[in-house]
Specification:
The complex is a heterodimer of chains A (about 375) and B (about 280). Chain A is an alpha/beta fold and about 375 residues long. Chain A folds into 2 domains: about 200 residues, 3-Layer(aba) Sandwich (Rossmann fold); about 140 residues, Rossmann fold, CATH 3.40.50. Chain A has 10 helices and 18 strands. In chain A, helix 8 links the parallel strand 17 and strand 18. Chain A is globular and about 60 Å long. With about 280 residues, chain B is of the alpha/beta class. In chain B, the strands form 3 sheets. In chain B, strands 11-10-9-12-8-1-6-7-13 form a 9-stranded mixed sheet, with helices on both faces. In chain B, strands 2-5 form a two-stranded antiparallel sheet. Chain B has a two-stranded antiparallel sheet with strand order 3-4. In chain B, helix 2 packs antiparallel against helix 5, helix 3 packs across helix 4 and helix 6 packs across helix 7. The termini of chain B are far apart. Classes of the chains: A alpha/beta (about 375), B alpha/beta (about 280). At the A-B interface, helix 3, helix 4, strand 7, strand 9 and strand 10 of A face helix 3, helix 4, strand 9, strand 10 and strand 11 of B.
Chain lengths: ~375, ~280
């Protein structure tokens, strides 16, 4: 593989910024535009929104790195990246990139980074993004901060990446001072969608990656798409009802499902419920589960540890029901009631059923 | 088959407490466990060994007390355990960790023979980065297969493996070559309890303990804090919202409390009632 060798990092990391000479040319903020089977993962647009702010603060360009098979879908991804704020799109088009494989994608992205040298590279913390980011960062021998909840540029132009730590009980801010690019991943729905400007266009810079199918060992035999019915739509739901250990038993979790059903909402739960086997891991809300941004989030019997908080803070309104008035969830909920969720949930379900009935809809319309 | 499983000892996060005044982690008395995600990888390794013969080695990097996690892995059924422990590893970020682990794996291959598959956990419950597995694969220059939900078939003689990998929106069925690094998806198998013989063997077993020197780690400047490109500048507790939640007083009956709550919700957002009415009737 005739891959350009990664520049040698400085011999010793220190808290002081002493960017080695060969890294000083690294410039601009990049977002990896994640495309799989012709569809761009919305986390890419969310990252363009976050990246726009970083690029503006640094006074540099915001660039999308678009990798994919030649064709309509890849071109559409580029056009859309411009509409969501990218100034430039680096395009690596190759039939080898039609499906995601670690070997081909990590080679292509590493080559692109070594050729065009971004100072910041952001990827979604999806199954694809996490698979790719670790490989690329290790090849480049640079720092990678995973699952960031906040990205900022500090006074001397370094990326300050904040993420939960210690099992989600505290937050920490991490820097990659002396290496480039500064890499970070962000989970879907952590950042808001940026505005879309249909008239916005940008510059496309093609890049020919040195890829050869004969050298790619892993072959895709088949792709089995998920049936829509098996997929939970938690991350994108407008209303979410969730339960925690305060529900006391797996049977009582049915109260959460009942309310969700009346509301046409999605349901979920905190991490301990997954560990206890009350709900599947695809229903877990929080740092290690799904991040949600609903209009209304109802948390029943959830104490609100940081690892849960970072997954729900994007909700427009948070309603907390908990018996413990000192539970941390009341620190970030908008509305709360100190009571036993097991008793309140059935009443709330019934009251919502009445309030939201079609009869009342007519009244609203009239 | 020779199979290596990388595991990590982690605090049982369900029991971590933060000191209310100093905001520091109260580690004392928090029990430790094998990172739960690692167990699915360990089980898959044991299944392959049971089918094809061979041995399963577990490796961890951590303080001397991490030997407890290794002993637990032996009790579940692993054949050999190696603890990589050295002060020079303290403060390692993911890049420095993958360097030390990959160097130790090279040493394991020298001493115990080439490994056909290296397993790692999908992610840990304390760091949650999911980056160490991919990093180790890259350092060893072997194929990387993360989020594997099923190993369909494995042919050690032809050096071929076919497996299912969770991707966004579906499952990829992949055919690739040994050696490779695999991380298993949670729930992909039923983790065994281990036999009484395994427990007895684990209790008596000698845990192989290697320092950086024993593992012949080539470059100590790539380990620990020195070898970590990321720097933690600040650890802090999140600030509460300036306003705490507006609390609704519980009424005499739950029905009245529910009414009051719904009133408060829609009082804060008029558009929400319309949106929710549509949603509730399936629009």
């Amino acid at each position: 593989m005739s891959q350009a060798p990664a520049p040698q990092p400085a011999s010793r990391a220190s808290a002081k910024k002493e960017l080695p000479e060969h890294f000083r040319g690294y410039k601009h903020v990049w977002v990896f535009i994640e495309q799989e089977r012709g569809e761009v993962h919305p986390v890419s647009w969310e990252l363009l929104g976050a990246g726009r702010k970083l690029a503006d603060k640094l006074g540099v360009q915001l660039c999308g790195a678009v990798l994919g098979a030649p064709g309509e879908a890849t071109r559409a991804a580029i056009a859309e990246a411009f509409r969501y704020g990218a100034d430039v799109a680096y395009l690596v088009e190759d039939p080898i990139l039609s499906d995601y494989r670690n070997e081909s994608y990590s080679k292509a992205l590493t080559q692109l980074v070594n050729a065009h040298k971004p100072e910041i590279l952001l990827l979604g913390a999806t199954t694809l993004g996490r698979d790719l980011a670790g490989s690329v960062a290790t090849t480049l021998l640079t720092g990678l901060t995973a699952d960031c909840t906040e990205l900022a540029v500090d006074a001397d132009g370094s990326l300050a990446a904040t993420r939960p730590t210690f099992g989600g009980s505290l937050l920490c801010t991490i820097y990659t001072l002396n290496y480039r690019p500064q890499m970070a991943t962000v989970r879907p729905r952590q950042m808001p969608m940026p505005p879309r400007d249909a008239a916005r266009v940008g510059q496309v810079i093609p890049f020919k990656a040195d890829l050869n199918e004969d050298e790619i060992i892993t072959k895709i035999l088949k792709f089995i798409p998920d049936r829509d019915s098996t997929k939970s739509n938690l991350a994108f739901a407008d209303v979410v009802v969730a339960g925690g250990l305060g529900l006391q038993s797996a049977e009582n979790f049915q109260l959460v499902r009942n309310l969700a059903s009346v509301l046409g909402a999605e349901f979920g739960g905190s991490r301990p419920l997954v560990q206890k086997g009350w709900i599947g891991s695809d229903r877990q809300i929080g740092q290690t589960g799904k991040t949600i941004r609903p209009k209304l989030y109802i948390a029943a019997g959830i104490s609100g540890a940081i690892q849960h908080r970072v997954g729900v803070e994007g909700a427009d309104m948070i309603l907390a029901i908990n018996t413990d008035k000192n539970a941390p969830i009341f620190d970030f909920a908008h509305l709360g009631v100190v009571t036993d969720a097991i008793r309140l949930l059935p009443a709330l379900t019934e009251a919502f059923r009445k309030r939201l009935s079609p009869h009342n809809r007519d009244r609203l319309a009239g | 088959m020779k199979i290596l499983v990388c595991i990590k000892q982690v605090p049982d996060s369900a029991q971590i407490r933060v000191h209310p005044v100093t905001n520091t982690i109260m580690r004392q008395g928090v029990p430790t466990i094998i990172n739960p995600y690692d167990l699915f990888s360990l089980e898959e390794a044991l299944k392959l060994r049971d089918k094809f013969g061979g041995e399963v080695t577990v490796l961890t990097m951590g303080p001397p007390m991490a030997s407890e996690a290794l002993r637990k892995a032996l009790a579940i059924g692993a054949d050999r355990a190696i603890l990589l422990t050295d002060r020079s590893f303290a403060g390692s970020d993911t890049l420095a960790t993958t360097y030390a682990l990959s160097q130790a794996i090279r040493k394991i291959e020298q001493v115990y023979g080439a490994q056909d598959i290296v397993f790692a956990g999908k992610q840990t419950i304390d760091g949650d980065t999911a980056q160490v597995g991919p990093g180790v694969a890259k350092r060893l220059d072997i194929l990387q297969l993360t989020y594997v939900s099923k190993i369909e078939s494995c042919d050690p003689d032809k050096r071929e493996i076919i497996l299912e990998r969770r991707a966004e929106g579906g499952v990829q069925v992949l055919k690739t070559k040994l050696p490779c690094l695999i991380t298993m998806l949670e729930g992909s198998n039923e983790v065994r309890r281990g036999t009484i013989d395994d427990s007895l063997r684990a209790a008596r077993a000698q845990i192989v303990t290697w320092s950086a020197k024993d593992a012949e780690i080539a470059d100590l400047t790539k380990c620990g804090l020195k070898g970590s490109p990321t720097i933690v500048k600040k650890v802090f507790a999140p600030t509460p919202r300036t306003e705490r939640a507006a609390l609704i007083e519980p009424a005499k009956t739950s029905a009245d409390t529910a009414e009051a709550l719904i009133g408060a919700i829609f009082a804060r957002s008029a558009s929400l009632e319309e949106d929710m009415t549509k949603l509730a009737s399936g629009f």
